[in-house]
Specification:
6-hairpin_glycosidase_sf, Glyco_hydro_37, glycosidase, 6hp_glycosidase-like_sf, single chain, 2 domains
Length: 195
């Protein structure tokens, strides 16, 4: 099973090399929305199970590239009680009906005042992998109140998962670099995080 897992990670890595992130699907129109950021976590779990340092090293730049996509495209600052927090959110650039559900999106938007915001929230919910769970609905009942991109309604679980994955992968990246180079800065960073 390790070979299959490794091949899947390599395949997804090739997608990141080409696009900078993992699109929500294999069609051109999915280039407007990402897949949830799970590649780093997959690589981390694979590394934990196999301790395959050579594979980890070969994937480092790819993982950093995907994390950079999230840093550049999905990061927002939220102020709570005067303290600024940097968080990540699902936020598709698309503000039109989804091609795969065009008619449904047109029909649903008939009852909504801000159609472009509605379509962006729908696409962003699809980006999350939790397409249309009531977690995205303001009233917890109807899609007409969808507010996926509303940063005041961020779901701590997804933010925590991303932060946890980012921390674990960066720790492994730093550890791997410490073992392959003699950088005092990388040694300091690794020692600061723990072994």
């Amino acid at each position: 099973m390790y070979d299959t897992t490794k091949a899947m990670i390599e395949n997804l890595g090739s997608v990141v090399e080409r696009y900078g992130f993992i699109p929500n699907g294999g069609r051109v129109y999915y280039l407007q929305r990402s897949h949830p950021p799970l590649l780093a976590g997959m690589l981390y779990e694979y590394y934990e199970a196999t301790e395959d340092k050579d594979f980890m090293k070969s994937m480092l730049s790819i993982i950093e590239k995907e994390l950079q996509f999230w840093e550049n495209n999905r990061k927002v600052n939220v102020t709570i009680n005067g303290v600024v927090h940097t968080v990540f959110r699902y936020s598709s650039r698309s503000n039109m009906p989804r091609p795969e559900s065009y008619l449904v999106d047109i029909q649903k938007a008939q009852s909504v005042a801000d159609k472009t915001r509605f379509w962006q929230d729908v696409a962003s919910a699809a980006e999350s992998g939790w397409d249309f769970s009531t977690r995205w609905f303001g009233d917890k009942r109807t899609i007409y109140t969808i507010e996926t991109t509303n940063v005041s309604k961020l779901h701590p679980f997804r933010v925590f998962i991303y932060a946890q994955i980012k921390f674990k992968v960066r720790l492994v990246i730093t550890k791997t670099r410490v073992e392959t180079r003699s950088s005092s800065v990388e040694r300091r960073d690794y020692n600061a995080y723990g072994s």
